[in-house]
Amino acid sequence: MDAPDRALVDAVLANRAGAFEQLVRDYQGLCWHIIQRMVRHPEDTRELCQEAFLRVHRYLHQYRFDSPLKSWIGQVAYSVAKRHLERKRIALADVADDDEGLSLLDNIGDGSDLQAEHALAGEARELHAAIERLPPLQRTLLTLYHLEELPIGEIASITGLAEGTIKSHLFRSRNKLREMLEPRIGAAA
Question: Which pTM does this prediction carry?
Fold first, then answer.
């Protein structure tokens, strides 16, 4: 357990002035990334981020320091966004993705860095637009892995998905992005 995280949690639980505000400042970017990638609606994202931090505040006493605080808060944000999508009857992933046997792929690396490839081609905006067309789960996993730079194990603890499932989603998401972008920028398949 990270000593600064433990000190911050202890300060929040002791109701020290400014402690919860510090926790929100430290983790609001992570919370926003997770929820925004899942729901894609700014008003809903703001409301759901507030709900996530209310839950963090309400249940922080249950946090047991058995995972990084970042993972625990990410898990709260993910579950709030997931419940929101379920209430609105929005599919978390493509139905075809669930039928393809997600544990078939054992590694993520296919030797490509999509962000670098497309940034070099001057097409970062097209990449982000393509990411937005992916289902909520794939958008979120790509964000956690590539933008937040979280390891697969930490993403698994946030989402409750098996590591193999996450790897498979990432692999297929990158392939989908490549397919979407290839006609526009001439990327090699």
Answer: 0.68
Residues 112 and 21: their CA atoms lie apart, in Å, by 39
Structural domains of the chain, with CATH: 3-87 (1.10.1740.10), 95-185 (1.10.10.10)
20/152 Cα distance (integer angstroms) = 28
Q: How far apart are CA 165 and CA 170, in angstroms?
A: 9
Per the CB < 8 A criterion, the answer to whether 177 and 185 are in contact is no
What span, in angstroms and rounded, lies between the C-alpha atoms of 65 and 4?
12
pLDDT by 10s per residue, the chain, length 189 = 588 999 999 999 999 999 999 999 999 999 999 999 889 888 999 999 999 999 999 999 999 998 899 999 999 999 999 999 888 888 777 644 443 333 333 334 444 555 555 444 455 677 777 888 889 999 899 888 987 889 999 999 999 999 999 999 999 998 888 888 887 665 454
**Which residues in 96-126 are b (16+ Cβ under 10 Å) and which e?**
ebeeeebeebeeeeeeeebeebbeeeebeeb
User: Which two tokens mark 84?
Assistant: 């929101």
